[in-house]
Amino acid sequence: MKDTEKFLKAAHNGVVTVVFEKLHTKEKRIMPCTLNEKLSNGNANIVKYEPTSDNFVVWCLDKDAWRSFRASTVLEWYEGEPKQ
Fold it and tell me: How far apart are CA 67 and CA 58, in angstroms?
């Protein structure tokens, strides 16, 4: 994934959509997520990431739960809700 710092900043500010390939099934997943306290109804705690980390934990808005993905499986990400 490119621009991890930009991704984290965007996720803390609002909704980010991550398109990635599931690790075991290779299925494409489009996940709206956030690290914003208000948008997660208080569930998104401050998460610290190592600059070399490949694993990201985010609050998934369509599942209303914590989910994770690996940066190496990300096909694209963008700010805002999923594109129609």
Answer: 6
In the predicted model, is pLDDT for residue 8 greater than 80?
yes
- Is the pLDDT confidence value at 46 over 90? no
Give the predicted TM-score (pTM) of the model.
0.90
Which residues touch 69 (CB under 8 Å, ≥6 apart)? Answer: 18, 20, 29, 31, 55, 56, 58
CA distance 21 to 2: 15
Distances (CA, A) of 58 to 36, 72, 76, 84: 9, 16, 16, 22
